[in-house]
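Handout, tutorial session.
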Amino acid sequence: MSEVLRRIAGTAVLCGGLGLLLYLALVTAADEPITAPALGFVGAGVVAAQVFHLLRDAWHSGIMPERPGAGTSRDANPVWYWVSMLWYGACLIGVVALGLVCLLRIVGL
């Protein structure tokens, strides 16, 4: 039992220290006016890349993944497949638009 408590305490110290460093970094960065749009741009870019790859893979394979191990086939259920493609496409457009708005705020337009 003592070993388990030591490991929990070590993990708590590690997580607490890293959390404090992250907090201090964000507090320092929050003083800059470009921080919020830059974080929005980076976040939108990451999400857009993930959604784009999902759509590209679904287009090439003909299977839209729903959950691990399951998916909707273009041949077996075409309506649900295309509705999913349209939904994720609309989400991709929205995320790209959000990224462009953040980029315009960064450059000052």
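The second record follows below. Compare its token runs with those of the first.
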Amino acid sequence: MRLALVEVETYAAGAPLWRRLSNMAYRCTIAGQRVQYEPRLQGNPTITTTMGVGAYCRRSRDMVSVSDIKFVLSPEIYDWMDAVWIGRPIRILSGVSDIVPYDETVIESVGKVSAVATGEDGVVTIQATDLGASLDVALSTQVYPDTAAETVRGRPVPWQRGRTFSVEPVCEDTAARVYRVGTSNTDTLGVRVGGLDRTKVTGVPTTGQFQADLPNARFALGSDANSDVRADAAAPGWETYTTADLLKDVVTEVINANPLATEDGDPVRTEDGLLIVGDYEPDAVSMAPLDGLRAAAPWPVGYFAKDSVNRLDVLDEAVAGVHGWWSVRPDGRFVAGILRAPGATPAKRLDKTTVQSAPLKEIIPPAWRIRVEHSRNWSPATNLLEGLTDTAARSAQSAAGQVAEPYQDASVTLAQPRAEDLPLIRSFVNDAAAAIAVRDLYTAMWGVERRVYTVKEVTETPLSLDEDAFLDFESVHRPVKVWSRTITVGGSDVTYEVVG
């Protein structure tokens, strides 16, 4: 039997106080003293982790979930319930036995307590959320103050990254004709009024001109705007700014705004040089998986928002635009990658020696058409001046973006009547070659029928998310990829969802 250990940092008498629950008598050394804990857990917790994707790489928000944690409230610990539990850090650990040193236990999950309830039978039930909930906040962390112009007061300051086309800037000063395209350090490459280009100058602009203010992410027009104002903007380094960089910016802004709580004398757990406890920490965005995403999706991207946008939505759109995925690991680290078809070199063979069952859960029909958009017009022009006589230019400026050459094979529908015409994939990439590469990733995965299986295995070495395996059980013999995993802490039961 393996050790399952739950630790909750409650708050009592003005200070954090750790409560420890285990599935067996547990002995460890804390602050130089040998301590033994009584077995209090009822059942072993289970932790489910997913890649947050489903058929055709469509996003799901269910990334980490922990089963209810239950323990018996015996008389000697009645005072535990006088402490604050809600919103406090919780972590789940495992070990190979009840005498393993504390420093050698493995952190399986960290999160925050969301609910605590005591039943008539004296059993306390704890519910916890994963740290991904910290990302469920607005993208822009800055709003215009009360001293700003009345038209922008209280609104989000524009948020811009990479290179973006046809953004609708915020007019901060009508009289001085000053507009903003980003938070800071953003250049204005071009400006159009009613579809007609204004000339960029370094001095004071006059009629038909504009002057860029890169450090402050602003520009000024030399004459009044009598129609739609649109701008092309770019932050320094946009040529190498990829999806991985966008994800890192979106996540680290939240991390830096939510520093770790201290443990007040309790042992500090580290793993790979990163502090693991209770909340995000400055180094929580593990660079290794993001470096892998950067190498797999090296194409420059851009992003712009002037209204209130949720960070989770930005992350979802960003990875969908490169056929990718992102998730928050149970230990609290952000990970992301490209979703690829199952590979030819499996990490493990899932067969009858360890597998108990592998029923078919879902059949995903192939896609017969896949289209990817690039070079997005973030705010297509709707009021073009008559002076813009070029029909092609008028069409381009009013379009949402450009669509690369699609993949399509109508003959697939003959053999597969349920074959899908996928909705347009609105990528953040900025050229046709990148869009075609994204299209090919989608085609490799979804141009053929896929099947999803629920595999139950008994093992001490479970597969990780995104790992390849070969499912060889009863009548199923095919390469598969893990996109969901449920482990039993303190046990050997594992349940996967695999696609192949």
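Points raised in discussion: Residues 243-257 form the longest helix (15 residues).
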